[in-house]
Amino acid sequence: MIARSESDDRCDVAIIGAGPAGSVAALELARAGLDVVVIDKTEFPRFRIGESMLPHAQRLMEELDLMDRVRSLPHMVKRGLEIEFGDGRREPAAISFEEMFGDGLKQTFNIRRSIFDRMIADAAAEAGARYRFGESVRTFESIEHGDVRMTLDGGRLRADWVIDASGQACVLARHLGTKRFLPGFRNVSYFEHYEGVLRNSGDRDGFATLAMCREGWFWLIPIDEKTTSIGAVIDGELSKSIPVPADQRLTWCLENCPAMAQRMSDATGPDRNQVVGDFSYTCDRHADAGWFMVGDAAAFIDPVWSTGVSLGLEGGVHAARRILDVAAGRMRPRAATRAHHARISGLRGTFMNLIRNFYDHSFRELIVRGDGPLGVHRAVVNMLAGEVFRKVPFSVRWRWDLMKGLREFNRFRPLNERIRPHSLLQSGGVGLPSPNAGVSRAVPRRRIGEPSWQSH
Ligand SMILES: Cc1cc2nc3c(=O)[nH]c(=O)nc-3n(C[C@H](O)[C@H](O)[C@H](O)COP(=O)(O)OP(=O)(O)OC[C@H]3O[C@@H](n4cnc5c(N)ncnc54)[C@H](O)[C@@H]3O)c2cc1C
Question: What percent of the chain has pLDDT over 70?
Fold first, then answer.
């Protein structure tokens, strides 16, 4: 046994990470009267990518009584998404949540993460959770139920349970050696926030836009009245052929994509972009004696359908409720952690399936068509809106199976026009915008059809 020192702290539940997954868990537990300590190595507010939500995120915000706080912050109402091809020659295909089967929630929101994450942390702190910002979890001495001991920068912390919500740092999985990268998803992403981006108006003003190219895809997400989150996800191998340093590649990619360049023609933003790679992985187990993993600390696959934060919120709430079940004697600890592992791995599998479809040209060709027999398109909207957290109705399930059949058929007997996406790397040389100190024009004014682009 390690002797307790003056700097030792003791609580019921220790949570590593104050992102959405960690803070909703803290909120649920603190509201139920448990003593919760949340440790985060950063000071808030801090930047995070991942601003576009699924309708399930709004459902959880309402359930947790946080939706009025969301509404009081700058945000955009999101009623769907659109998919376009990088050559900019076709109208984007709209996927409106209104078309979904059932009477579920048909909207959600996009929001700047620094303010969103802080809002949830504030709510949890008001409920009694103790936050220790600017402190890192360094090692674990024990992770048994009733005997969790960890070393932080500022001393030791003891708890009955630990919830790892440390995001891509995967603190616990690294300790246990259970983090595995996903073959086939070795991508890299470049992203930044811009103002003055040409965005949709009317009902589509909060739509997330995806633009596909041969080497990857772009996102365009309006996050408040002025600011737009712009990013590119590029195949890791192909990214090595981009002839500029990693922190300048977003501008390069935008310039070489006609559809995006047009949207960015009057945009202003930073000269350099942020970069993240190796973000697709899973951990072997998501809970066991004494611990739970939630959010990105458990798994992250790919940002394409904006599933990350919603999955994190669901995981945080789920772990907290299992701990409360044990505390109330409704569940045994082993059953609680088994239930959490099953829940997270089930959702991960479903989302993996959806994400694989996006990277399948046959599926993409069918969804941009925008209709299909027997209402199959509407069922696809249910799935792409992430309405899989509750039982998926039979009306959606059989149509989704039909869609998978059509996808296979389309591979061999085209049901829709074959679309060969635009290539960024083969689009011809371009000049970079002159780097100014501070804010610069993101992409020089250029129009589709000017000679530096070559469409395919
Ligand atoms: C390129 C890209 C685009 C994305 N776009 C979207 C999107 O549009 N929509 C969406 O829903 N999701 C998106 N995601 C996913 C989203 O970013 C994550 O799923 C989400 O941030 C996970 O939240 P979390 O609470 O699990 O972790 P985080 O929000 O990452 O929080 C983890 C916290 O843990 C802290 N921490 C880490 N290590 C330690 C330590 N040792 N000690 C103490 N604290 C520690 C960190 O400081 C951090 O604050 C995207 C991801 C990527 C890579």
Answer: 92
